[in-house]
Amino acid sequence: MDFFDLYRQKTQLSEKLFKRAKAVMPGGISHNVHYFPPYPFFLKEAKGSKIRDVDGNEYIDLWMGHYTHILGHYSEIIVKAIEQQSKEGIHWGIVFEKQVEWAELIQGLVPSAEMVRFCCSGTEATMYAVRLARAFTRKNTILKIAGGWHGANSDLSVGIKMPYEKEESLGLLPELQHYTKTILFNDLPGTLEMIHQNRNNLAGIILEPIVGEGGFIPGTEEYLKMLRSETEKLGALLIFDEVISGFRVGLGGAQGLFNILPDLTTLGKIIGGGMPVGALVGRKEIMEKTSPERKADKWEKILIGGGTFSSHPLTVAAGIAILCYLRDFAEEIYPVLEVKGERVRKGVQEALQREGVETAVTGFGSLFQTHFPFEGGVILNSPHSINQKTDTDKREVEFRIRMLNHGVHVMHGGGSLSMAHSDEDIERIIQAAREVAKEMKG
C-alpha cells in the first residue's frame, strides 16, 4: 500500500475535518506550517511526549508546540500556574506586579537583557527589533541570513526561499528589497564583503545564532565574533533571534553558551510556558528609547509594544512558572536534553544510512533535523546549503508521512526533545526511522 494511502486509511476523520476546515479557513489552516499534503491530522489530546489525533492514533511528538514544551505537553507546573492565575483574573490591560517579576527573571538569566519589553509573538518581537535598530542608528539597511526565518513581518519577509532575489509574497512593498539584504550563514568572507558594501547605511544584522530553518546548525565562533566586531566598528546593532534557542539550549540561550553579547535579542516560545508570547530585550541605552515618558528637552517616539494582550496574565503566570523551574533545575535539565538529542541524531542517521538511504542529521542540544542530500559527502553548514544540496520535498512530505504511519510526528525531518521523552520513546523514534528507511529503499 502506498504511504499516502496508508495515512488516509488511518486518518479518515481528520480528512473529513479538513474538508470542513477548508470551507471556513483558506487552505484549512491559520498557520501555513500546519499544512502538509494530503492533509494534516487533527489533534484531540496531548500529554507528556505523546499526542493523539481524532482517529485515535497516538504519536510520539517531536514538534512539541513549535519547540515550546521543553518539559512536555500539559506540564503540571504550567497547568497549576495558569489555573491559579485564572482565579485571580484573566485579562486586565493594566500593569501588575507579576509582570515585573517575569521581566526580572529574564533580566537575570539572559546576558543581553538589561531591559525587557513584552509583546505577543516572536514575529512581533523581530518586527520591533528591526524598527528599533533603524531608529537608534538612524540608518536603514538590515542584513539577514539567506534562508533565515524571523516570522512573517514585512521587513524580514525577504530572502527566505531560493532563489533569494524573488518576491516572497504579494502585498510586500518592492522598496523592502532595497533595505533588507541577505548574507550567507557561516560564510565569513562573503558576509564581510556585504557588510562593507553597506557600511554607510547599516542599521543592524539579525540572525538566529542556531538557525531554525537551517537544520539547527550553530554559527561558528569565528563567524559570530566577526559579526560582533564589525557591527561595533560601524555603530550598527547585532540582533540575535533566540525565539527558538532561548532557554532551549541553555538558561542564557545561545549567547550564553557562545559568549557573544548582542545588542538586542528577541525571545518567545519557552518564555511563555506554552501561552502566546514574545519579548524584545537588550542594552539599556537602546531599550530606553522605547519609553513613553516624555523627556524635558525633546520627545521622539518609537512605537513598540502596543499589543492588547502583551503581558497577558495567563502568559505571565506560565512564564514565571517555567523560568523558575528551568533556573532551579538547570544542572539536571540541560545535560539530560543534550544527551537525548545526541542519541536521536546519531540513532536516526545510522538507522537510515544502514539501509542505504543517503542521510545527514544536523542539530544542537535537544534540537535536530533530518536531510536527504542529493549526493554523498556534502557539507551542511547553513540554510542555503540545505536548500541547495538536499531534497527538502522528500523530507517535508514522504519522510514526514512515513514517520507518522509509524507513530512519530516530525517537523522538518526532526524536532525537539523534552524532559518527557523517555528512553523508550527515543528507541521507538530510531526504530521508526529504521522501518521508514526500508520502505524508502524498497
Domain count = 2
Question: How far is it from the N-terminal to the C-terminal residue, by CA?
Answer: 12 Å
CATH superfamily of the largest domain: Type I PLP-dependent aspartate aminotransferase-like (Major domain)
**Number of E-state strands:** 16
Number of helices: 16
Average the pLDDT over all residues and give the rounded result.
Answer: 95
Q: Largest sheet, order of strands side by side?
A: 4-12-11-10-7-5-6
Uncertain regions: pLDDT < 50 for 5+ in a row? none
What can be said about the biggest beta sheet?
A: 7 strands, mixed
Structure in words:
The chain is of the alpha/beta class. The chain has 2 domains: 3-73 and 333-441, Alpha-Beta Complex (Aspartate Aminotransferase, domain 1), CATH 3.90.1150; 76-328, 3-Layer(aba) Sandwich (Aspartate Aminotransferase, domain 2). It has helices at residues 3-10, 12-24, 64-67, 76-88, 97-109, 122-137, 176-179, 188-197, 221-234, 253-258, 284-287, 313-328, 330-354, 383-389, 392-405, 423-441; strands spanning 43-47, 50-53, 58-61, 115-119, 141-145, 180-183, 202-207, 210-211, 217-218, 237-241, 264-268, 278-282, 360-364, 367-371, 408-409, 415-416. The protein has a 7-stranded mixed β-sheet with strand order 4-12-11-10-7-5-6, with helices on both faces. Helix 7 links the parallel strand 5 and strand 6. Helix 4 (76-88) packs antiparallel against helix 12 (313-328), helix 5 (97-109) packs parallel to helix 12 and helix 13 packs parallel to helix 16. The longest helix is centred in the last third of the chain and has 25 residues, at 330-354. It is globular. 48% of the residues are buried. The model has no long low-confidence stretch (mean pLDDT 95).
